[in-house]
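Q: Trace token order:
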Amino acid sequence: MDATAKQFLIDLVNHPAPTGFEAPAVKVWCDYLRPHADEVFTDSYGNGFAVLNPKGDPTVLLTGHADEIGLMVTYIDDEGFLWVGSLGGYDAKILPAMRVRVFGRGGELPGVIGALPPHMQRPDGGGNQLERYKFGVNVYIDIGAKDKKEAEKYVRVGDPVILDYGFLSLKNDIAVSRGLDNKIGIWAAAEGLRRCSQDRKGLNAKIVALATVQEEIGGHGAKMGAFRIDPDVALAVDVTQSVDHPGAEKKRWGEHRMGQGPVVAHGSACHPEVVARLGKVARRLRINLQHEAAPMWTGTDGDSIFRSRAGIPTAVVSLAQRYMHSPVEMVNLKDLEQIASLLAAFCRDVKKAERFKVQV
């Protein structure tokens, strides 16, 4: 991954985008694409759109979701502690002692999630410990306020929160951060369009890159975006479970590994002709594809897109990720680079006015 593209990914991750509050990251995404697209715009809820070759046919939609899971302030108690609920899919038991950033009325505010010391978890000197942390019971943020009145100068109920964990590079092209689910998806959609913009010769398709909002709570932005664009074919990019670490059950989650290439889903939202074309393009590029079963749903924006209008032929391309829905989500950047190459090559491969249809 070249330095410019990597810095773009770092900028996306380091700009907050908790579900429903994605504007900072979407702005970074739009600014990056303006020199490469014919049109860049947003809609009423903050979905980001970039259009290349607007008179082309068919229309290919490349999409990922901009939002990341986070927390939301639900109550401020008399002592000035901020009680929170999950904004998306955080597991409460991983949160104690984490540093956070609260986005309050006066701007960004640091804080920590309270953690009861082990000594205080053992009543009467016994060996019993708290079973787990639970929202509404013992998950709260300490911003150092002396009381409720002071806390309310800076924060109100409804303010979003993210864990304060940024981008970190490890060995062997490994990256770690909160929010890689799914900043990698909007990165890939943007990079797919950018690479096609470098040489438009022979490009038949109109390409629309889309950074959606509110995927983590139901794929709402993808519903809006797919209806607006009405594409002829769509490729949704997200993350999937990597099982190459202790405790991961292959029989349940399948065998997807970091460093072994993009993962293509089969079933439910995944149009067989689009999936087959992805396979053909990948073979030509000598990109190894991993395969994932999605018999009922994919758990991605693809579920919203393929049901839009009269049915949009859709495929889901995923990046194998360790430690999903945590502040240390881990991916292989070579896999991500291959996804961008696959998206760009697919866009170049479609024929003029081509349509994807199941043959009956």
